[in-house]
Design goal:
The structure is a single chain. Helices cover 57% and strands 0% of the residues. It has 345 residues and is mainly α. The protein has one domain: Glycosyltransferase (Alpha/alpha barrel), CATH 1.50.10. The longest helix is centred in the middle third of the chain and has 21 residues. The chain is globular.
């Protein structure tokens, strides 16, 4: 199959310290940039004025709340991977400042508003838990107070998942923030790192109910503003939440032609026509998140199916990596997905 795009020379799928430092500098530049800002805010009355830094003193930057959360995840992940990088001191000073107890309490107070019930559900919820899991994985003395400071906020979002999942009869299969499977993926990392068996069990029940009988996925994607693959996210969620043998049997029913690189739509990187348009620019993120998904799934595949998955991962990296920086509409979030693709297997 000849890809319908001009690939660069193959991107090195390894995350080097030079690339990590580049991404850290990008993130340090946007997690403290308050404007432009896209709010997820319900006004309860004419006096309910929203100012990002006042409402969210921890996560006010990066264009929107959830992007700021995963900007911090990127900083914590890369500091843990490369603790000697020159930028580590700036990361530490920033987190010390933002994770102050008063700031965490203000974030919790915003969540306590009756009209905040659906705030950032489920994407922001999941990324906050992913950040907490990353802090738990960092065993350095410097990181322990950060994990403790964030814990009340993580507890609140874990509780929201446990209350909401039994109410969600059907999954959302969109290729963007509302995607249910993606939320399961990130929340499962938190459940594992924190030993939250109740959350893990809730995630498993939802995954089985939503995707357990799925077979012969058609993969009618991408849509015009996807940054996630609904088809591959479901597979990643099931990989994390099912026993290995059960998952392999499920995957054989779900995507029975992987060995033949089919459905073809999953193996062809998306074309991005206008990176200054935030929604069209999502498709750069789709290329990166698919690279992550294919590298993830390759770990349980063999033979031609594994070869096809690894080739697809490389093609999507080649398509997405040159566009992580440039226009702010992509720059405030794309590096996160590049790091996922290159540091999670």
């Amino acid at each position: 199959m000849t890809p319908p795009y001009r690939a660069t020379a193959n991107v090195d799928p390894r995350l080097t310290i030079d690339l990590a430092r580049h991404y850290v500098r990008i993130a340090l530049g946007h997690v403290s940039r308050e404007y432009p800002h896209k709010a997820d805010h319900v006004m309860d009355g004419p006096g309910d004025v929203y100012l990002p830094r006042r409402a969210h003193p921890v996560f006010y930057g990066s264009f929107d709340w959830h992007s700021c959360v995963h900007g911090f995840w990127l900083l914590v992940r890369l500091r843990r991977m490369f603790p000697a990088m020159p930028e580590a001191a700036a990361i530490e000073a920033l987190i010390d400042e933002r994770f102050a107890d008063d700031n965490i309490r203000a974030e919790l107070a915003y969540l306590a508003r009756a009209s905040s019930r659906g705030f950032e559900r489920p994407y922001g919820w999941a990324w906050l838990l992913k950040l907490a899991a990353e802090l738990r994985a960092d065993t350095s003395p410097r990181a322990r107070p950060w994990a403790s400071s964030l814990a009340p906020l993580a507890d609140a979002f874990a509780a929201r998942f446990k209350a909401f999942l039994p109410l969600q009869t059907y999954p959302v299969r969109a290729g963007s923030h509302a995607n249910s499977a993606f939320a399961l993926i990130l929340a499962s990392d938190y459940a594992a790192s924190h030993g939250d068996q109740a959350l893990h069990d809730a995630l498993v029940r939802s995954a089985r109910a939503w995707f357990g009988t799925n077979a012969g996925a058609q993969a009618w994607e991408p849509s015009g503003e996807d940054f996630l693959s609904p088809t591959l996210c479901a597979a990643q969620a099931m990989r994390r939440l099912l026993p290995d043998d059960e998952f392999r049997a499920w995957l054989a029913r779900y995507l029975p032609e992987l060995h033949a690189a089919a459905p073809a739509s999953l193996f062809i990187p998306a074309i991005v026509s206008d990176r200054s348009d935030g929604r069209i620019g999502h498709l750069d993120g789709l290329n990166l998140s698919r690279a992550w998904a294919w590298r993830d799934l390759a770990g349980v595949l063999a033979g031609k199916a594994r070869e096809a998955a690894l080739a697809a991962a490389q093609a999507h990296l080649d398509a997405g990596m040159p566009h992580v920086a440039g226009d702010y509409m992509g720059e405030h979030w794309l590096a996160t997905y590049a790091v996922l693709a290159m540091s999670e297997r």
